[in-house]
Amino acid sequence: MDPSQPARLRLPDEAATLELGRILAEILANPATRAALLLRGDLGSGKTTLVRGLAGALPGGDEAEVASPSFNIVNVYPTRPEVFHVDLYRIPGGDPCVEEHLEAALENQAVAVVEWAQHLSRALAPPDRLECDWLPVPSGRLCELTAHGRRGAAALTALIAACPNLLDR
User: Which compartments does it reside in (predicted)?
Assistant: First the structure.
C-alpha cells in the first residue's frame, strides 16, 4: 500500500483499538518513525482508548494514568519517550498554550498526540504527523490515517506492515 495515500483500518472492538495503540507505541517510539498523532472524531469514537493503548505499551506506561485531558488541556505521561496528550475539545477557537505544548513535545523528542485535532490551526500542525480520522460505521470503528512528512510516511508504512489484517480494502 502506498503511504502517500490514506489507509483505512477497521477496528471491530475496543480490544482492537487498544492493540492499534500498542502497535503505534512501538512505531512512534522509534526516532526514525516518530510522528505526531492527530486524532479527529466524535465523542466516544475511540480516541482516548487509542491513547491508553499507546501510552500503556511504552516503558513507564504502567505509571501513566491515561484520561482525556479535556480540563487540563495537556497530560504528560511518564513514559519513554514521554507522551504529550493534548485535548482541544474545550478550546475549539485555539489557545496560545497549545503551541507551547507542541513545541515542548518536539523539543523533548516526545510523542505528541492531539485529540480533537480538527480545532488545531494548520499552522501549528507538526510537519511529521499521522492524521487519524474516526469515521462512523454501523459497528466497530473505522480509522482513516493520512501521513504527512518523511517520518509520518515511514510511520504509516510501518503501521500497514504491522497490521495488514486490519486494513479495510
Answer: Cytoplasm
Residue 78 burial (10 A CB sphere; 0-12, 13-18, 19+): middle
Report CA-CA distances (Å) from 21 to 7, 95, 156.
16, 27, 13
Least confident stretch, 40-44, 91-95, 125-129: 91-95
Length of the chain: 169
Pick the CATH number of 7-161 from 3.30.70.120, 3.40.50.300, 3.90.190.10, 3.40.50.970: 3.40.50.300
What are the grid coordinates assigned to 129, written together?
Answer: 504527523
Measured CA to CA, the distance from residue 79 to residue 83 in angstroms comes to: 6
